[in-house]
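User: Could you check the structure of this?
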Amino acid sequence: MKITDNSFIFKQLGKKDELPYELLLLADPSKKMIDQYIRKSDVFTALYQEETIGIVALFPLTKNTGEIKNVAVKTEFQRHGIGTFLIENAIQAAQSNGMKSVIIGTANSSIGQLLLYQKLGFEMTEVKKNFFLENYAETIFENGLQAKHMVVMERLLK
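Assistant: Sure, the predicted structure tokens are below.
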């Protein structure tokens, strides 16, 4: 399957639109945690041939800083640049809202995400020790590693 940037559409969901939890749960396995931030976030989707294939949630931390709380792409559409497309468009939305920076957090075990976020200009700023141990009831493993700590990264905007 060949997908290009002009093959899919970036669309903002309304506050009362139905949320695609099956996608949100790919990035955050706790519906309880998702429900704490999702309705306060600007939620955007990537559509391909009218199918929702990706999602990103931009949460306003302050007037000047947004946090990408969730970014997920359907498994069969991963590795086609859709995650990059979602993040870059969320960053543009943050800039349009006057934000000066965007942060994103991921697990110490999320090796692919750590690489992607650095390629997109994010810099590591903090490690929240034991975040996943203290905030999630179930143990999370990725890439053969247990998710214990959250690595927080920031990208300054122009």
